[in-house]
Amino acid sequence: MLKNYLEEILQSTGVNKHQTHIEDEMIAFGKAGLKYIADAIKTIAHDGINEKYTITVKLDGAPAIISGYLPADTVTSNGVSMKKGDFFVGTKSVFNATPKIAPTPDATEALYGGPLGEILKMCHQYLPAVVKSGIYQGDLMYAKIGERGPETKEIDGQMFYTFKPNTIIYAVPVDSDYGKAITASKMGIVMHTKYEGESLEKIMPSFNVSESNFNKSLNVWLTDAKRKTVGAGHLLNSEEATRIEGMANYLFGAIAKISDKFFKILKESFKPSDALMIFINSRIKNGVDKIIDDPKVFLNEFKDWLTIRGEKEIEDAKSNKGKANKAAILQENLDLVNNNEFEFIQFLKIYKVILKAKSQIIRALNDSTQGMQSFLQTENGIQKTNPEGYCIVNIDNKISKFVDRLEFSKANFNTGSFRKK
Questions:
Q1: Could you tell me how far CA 310 lies from the centroid of its own chain?
Q2: What is the pLDDT of residues 105-134, one digit of tens each?
Q3: Which pTM was predicted?
């Protein structure tokens, strides 16, 4: 799922960098976060996606493939010395203390073994022709080996190539440009992350990856994760753009409505410090219809949640001193809400506008034309589904999750439709 997708990328390199939903940027970064949100929304509404912001789509491929050229001499997990510039292929275990890589296709297959080893051998054979330089991570969509190859299937009267790397079935029209490339290829991969640094231990991820970074090869159908057909005039009609731009202007005006002190309280003073985010996530997991409807009602429910949580911690404390400490924390949390009620209400009104703007943009993204369609196998047959989610990446390589959290929760937390990788 999207959360795992982001965390796997970052944690596999040892990068301690928390990625937030775009609406939570102002919880994490205060006024600077709110300004970033407003600017991103206004850019999408006014210009579409340009060089300043990119929207990427999460595709449910597996396994994660990391490949490229070593930035420094390296001793591998099985004791092989590889030189700077040597090509390698692996999974996220590439970033182990001693990387799990090998210098040749056959050695890579032997190192990983089984069906995964066969897939990585194929990647080692064909990816050097497309990866020009550097290190990239992608999700394998299909490999014409065993049962991982694409199938030809009729859906709603149209012929598609379909492949199911994980949970979602992806379909590409046979007679499309994508379909023709798939016919000729041996494997398909979506590249979404680039790594740069002087060694495997010190590399850092970036997310502005484009198909133009790679050579073309008949053997590899390769695409990037950028949302296709997104651009000026392609995503929102004039009425939608005007409405969302109005919301962005409201957000710019709202920056002055909340003090820096309140944002600091929100980020640092509660115990735990991310109490508000935990509460929001708990509401989503419990299947609420709206994350925020009436701000005053939401705030009262937040206090009730703090109380229930605090009383449970008091009950679980082993000593009288521990119980007293937990009771003091509970009272401090409740005082923070009661003493800052006005700014809390203003904050929640702003948060609600962000959610509304984001929801309308996601709806437009889901409705816009794309080369690869997604389906789920259900008891009633194959049914069209939306992508797992989106990310928005700015020119400074800042990445934020751009997801319909309520819809995603119904699919993921409640029914388990999206299997963790």
A1: 32
A2: 999 999 999 999 999 999 999 999 999 999
A3: 0.81
